Amino acid sequence: MLKGKSLIDPMDFTLEELELVFELSNDIIENPKKYSTICNGKLLATLFYEPSTRTRLSFEAAMLRLGGEVLGFSDVNSSSVSKGESLADTIRTVGCYADIIAMRHPKEGAAKVASTHSSIPVINAGDGGHQHPTQTLTDLLTIKNIKGNFSNHTIGLCGDLKFGRTVHSLVKALSRYENNRFILISPEELKIPDYIKQEILEKNNIEFIEVDRLEKIIDELDILYMTRVQKERFFNEEDYVRLKGSYILNEEKMRKAKQDMIILHPLPRVNEISNEIDKDPRACYFKQARFGMFVRMALICKLLGVWVDVEYR
Ligand code: CP
């Protein structure tokens, strides 16, 4: 039962619980009307201490499509955070008004802290360079629906693997399935953190290699997960400018890729995927953004427990 739970880390749900979320997502995709009033009278609070397009708007669209309502802030300067209010007090207060919270914060661990002060479920919509579990649900639903399963894949993760929280969450999540192999493609300065390598990959005997050139290994990949170099997490502009053009996926590189490889990207992109690739049938990143709304609909239903209510009506 997921009712009343928070989602802070992709490992918070068991594989069985994840499967139920994906099943519900696909039922919502097929039968949207069945769910259009299921959250009547429920309120989602979106507390975004950092900018967002997809995560905030897909959460809001998700709740509205379920018949619920939304409130919140997308700019801390319009909230009492700007007067110095603590995260704990903000969360306690929002718990007096809403039924569920989706929050993004620049500090690693902020969502975890929030959940300890909250009387209602908290969903981590990204905490600094740490985790982004609902992006992972989005990525997994996309992989399930396009590739058919989560196992036996060679997955290339390319770009900013150091600060890319979506990468950290996805590696954790895919490591739970059988016989996946990871190719970690990044410049030296943006390699995946040691804790992911040691505590997730090495500890579980998962095959992985680290390389610095995409074109050398693109032909091996079943899934290519591109990421943006995270300007907002750099301490100096010079390093960002030097690294931002490290990997650009273009038609020349795609000619070497398998015909059934899929390209995913959490978005936003800057320059790492040329616009010419968008028309390639292997480019799945806008389909992925759409799946994100449906999986967030399913997640809201599960955490609020409204789906169980309907099943027994
Ligand atoms: N993928 C993602 O988190 O996008 P936003 O930053 O626009 O929410």
Automatic annotation (TrEMBL):
GO molecular-function terms, A-Z: amino acid binding; aspartate carbamoyltransferase activity
Q: Domain Aspartate/ornithine carbamoyltransferase carbamoyl-P binding, which positions? A: 5-144
Leader peptide range in chain numbering? none
Q: Does the keyword Protease apply?
A: no
Binding-site list for L-aspartate? 83, 165, 228
Which InterPro entries does the entry link to?
Asp/Orn_carbamoyltranf_P-bd (IPR006132), Asp/Orn_carbamoylTrfase (IPR006130), Asp/Orn_carbamoylTrfase_sf (IPR036901), Asp_carbamoyltransf (IPR002082), Asp_carbamoyltransf_Asp/Orn-bd (IPR006131)
Q: Membrane spanning segments where?
A: none
Which biological process, per GO, is one annotated for this protein? 'de novo' UMP biosynthetic process
Annotated pathway, please? Pyrimidine metabolism; UMP biosynthesis via de novo pathway; (S)-dihydroorotate from bicarbonate: step 2/3
| Keywords on record | Pyrimidine biosynthesis, Transferase
Provide the catalytic activity annotation: carbamoyl phosphate + L-aspartate = N-carbamoyl-L-aspartate + phosphate + H(+)
Q: Boundaries of each Aspartate/ornithine carbamoyltransferase Asp/Orn-binding domain copy?
A: 153-301
- Which residues are carbamoyl phosphate-binding? 54-55, 104, 132, 135, 267-268
- As recorded in UniProt, its EC number(s) are 2.1.3.2
Q: Does the keyword Transferase feature in the UniProt annotation?
A: yes
- Quaternary structure note: Heterododecamer (2C3:3R2) of six catalytic PyrB chains organized as two trimers (C3), and six regulatory PyrI chains organized as three dimers (R2).
* Matching NCBIfam families: asp_carb_tr, PRK00856.1
Which HAMAP family does the record match to this protein? Asp_carb_tr
Q: Which family does it belong to?
A: Belongs to the aspartate/ornithine carbamoyltransferase superfamily. ATCase family.
| Known function | Catalyzes the condensation of carbamoyl phosphate and aspartate to form carbamoyl aspartate and inorganic phosphate, the committed step in the de novo pyrimidine nucleotide biosynthesis pathway.
Name recorded for this polypeptide: Aspartate carbamoyltransferase
* Native source species: Clostridium bovifaecis
